[in-house]
Amino acid sequence: MSANLANLESHLATRSYVEGYTPSQADVVVFKAISSAPDSSAYPHVSRWFNHIKSYTAEFDSLPGSSQAGEAFLGGAAPAAEKKEEEDDDDVDLFGSDDEEDAEAERIKAERVAAYNAKKAAKPKTVAKSVVTFEVKPWDDETDMAKLEECVRSIEMPGLVWGASKLVPIGYGIRKLQITLVVEDELVSLDELQEKVAEFDEYVQSSDVAAMQKL
Fold first, then answer.
1. Using CB atoms within 10 A of its CB, is residue 26 exposed (0-12), middle (13-18) or buried (19+)?
2. What distance in Å separates the CA atoms of residue 173 and residue 64, rounded to the nearest whole number?
3. How far apart are CA 68 and CA 160, in angstroms?
4. Alpha-carbon span 11 to 21, nearest angstrom
5. Which backbone phi and psi does 188 adopt, to 5 degrees?
6. What distance in Å separates the CA atoms of residue 82 and residue 84, rounded to the nearest whole number?
7. Along the 215 residues of the chain, how does pLDDT read in single tens digits?
């Protein structure tokens, strides 16, 4: 009975012997089933093993172990080729299954991400707001403060809500307008607000943010 070189080549790709870590009767039975030295280009691992085991020819009868493990590699190349084809077919099917499983996993993941994003989008977003104490100084004590405040309150911006106000003395009969406002941080730029207030230069000398606190 001849040896199945294809199976033996695969087996010896990661092993030095048919069984165990030393020459044994398993090597002997397979060696004897090979009628001539294997083609080293087609079966490099078998060729290496064959030449190595050949050096033990004189010791074949005394080598330890059983021939049972070696008998698994007897039976000829043709059946092995058929078996290899079957194994290759199985491998293709298995890889196909892996691809299908990966695709299914990706689909489920995508659905979960989409559901999470939809839930996140539907959840009410917390709007960051701040309370600002805003001060506007007139040119002098003759400035019409009622008209100044009217001009300031006429400014409209998305996210801006004007609140209470009062006039605060700053000396020499001059009073400044101190007004409270609530702003949405993402919508209102206080620098832009000050620029708009400065446009009323007939009444306004300057403006300033006296205090600011997050709500």
1. buried
2. 118
3. 91
4. 14
5. -110, 125
6. 5
7. 688 889 989 999 999 999 988 999 999 999 999 989 999 999 999 999 999 999 999 999 999 988 888 888 887 544 434 444 445 555 545 455 566 778 888 889 898 998 888 887 777 777 899 999 999 999 999 999 999 999 999 999 999 999 999 999 999 999 999 999 999 999 999 999 999 999 999 999 999 999 999 98
- Tell whether pTM > 0.85: no
CB contact burial 90-119 (16+ within 10 A = b; e otherwise): eeeeeeeeeeeeeeeeeeeeeeeeeeeeee
Q: Residue 178 has which token pair? A: 């101190």
